[in-house]
Amino acid sequence: MTTGRTDRVADYTTRFAAFLEAEVAPLEADLAEQDVGTAFNPRLDEAGRMHPAVWEARREVQRRSAAAGLYTPHVGGEVGGGGFTRAEMQHVEEFVYRHAGLGLGLAALAWTEGPNPAIEHCSPAARERWLDPLVAGEITAAFANTEIAVGTDVLAMKTRARPDGDDWILDGTKAWITNAHFADVVQVVAVTEPGAGTRSLSMFLVDAASPGFTRGRDIPTMLNDGLTGELHLEGVRVPAQDVVGEVGDGFALAMAWINWRRLCRGGMCAGWGSWLLERALDRARTRTSGGAPIAELQSVQHMLADMDADLYAARAASLQAQAELDDLPGGAFGMPLHPDAPRLTSLVKVINDEAFFRVTDRAVQVHGGTGLRLGSPEEKLFRIARNLKIPAGTVEIQRNAIARGLLRGSR
């Protein structure tokens, strides 16, 4: 299937491969000599946070990637990004995850700490202050939507923003926030008009150096990456120019961010899954049992075949859905969002979350005891796969969205 495999995708992947060899490999070698862990298995500091040397290595990759024009293919060309379609990004993300594996190279493509579709709606002043440095890899961001007792039910959040002259005053606590410990600017979603339904929320760009803004405790998760934590806002003053979009756009903007992460599952799972399948094939050919390679065992052959089937089906579904999203008025992140978009986006997430979990489970099984070893690619990606079923909306929520689309005739 060639959907989205354009000339600029070919150019990007060629340049990315060269970047991995010329820029990332030496940084990984230097990091290994420091004995502080790796990008996805970092040593943690006393507070349970990612070791600063690992964080700085990631940051250096981000800065170099931005300088090479590789960091932000997913954001609009009008704000300094590549302006790639979602179908094109499927191929880009698949290449990056397959060839970077679990190394520093993953930092070369902006993840949740970089610019995203929601922040593109910021004011000209905020663009100069926040978005341009994000695109350049000079600073990092965090998305603060979830709270201690509020996940999917975002309209129940307790964080409030009240007007004060030309400014806004924010109070509340956010939890389970990726990059909470290091972000320079935080996209905070808060209630500005209680009881107004989807118009009750607004999004603010909050300077992490603001008085009243503090970083809370680390929240260890099964990823064990030292990046997740709490954020506290007590009387934090935010100028009107740092409201993203218009007051009342917060729900739509939050969904744009969340849907972006859902759609990234397609390339991520295809890339990592293909890498795992390659490793499983090599293991099956070289590991012997009873004097013969385990690849000759039908049970192992069936596991390899099932991995391939899951990867092929999920990848094809992702490409088809993202191509359809690209063709919708407003695309995947329009405001307002086209009624067909939620079903297509949820299909990408649930299909990949569940297929990738099966792929990682079989990868561990093919490797046997070595697949259980802490820090091995199979063990780490098995934990990541289990984690993926919850963030950006659980697999159960995705099924709800798919059903709603079907019942309203969205096909």
Automatic annotation (TrEMBL):
Its cofactor is FAD. Residues 248-407 form the Acyl-CoA dehydrogenase/oxidase C-terminal domain. Residues 58-138 form the Acyl-CoA dehydrogenase/oxidase N-terminal domain. It comes from the Bacteria. Residues 142-235 form the Acyl-CoA oxidase/dehydrogenase middle domain. Keywords: FAD, Flavoprotein, Oxidoreductase. Belongs to the acyl-CoA dehydrogenase family. This is Acyl-CoA dehydrogenase.
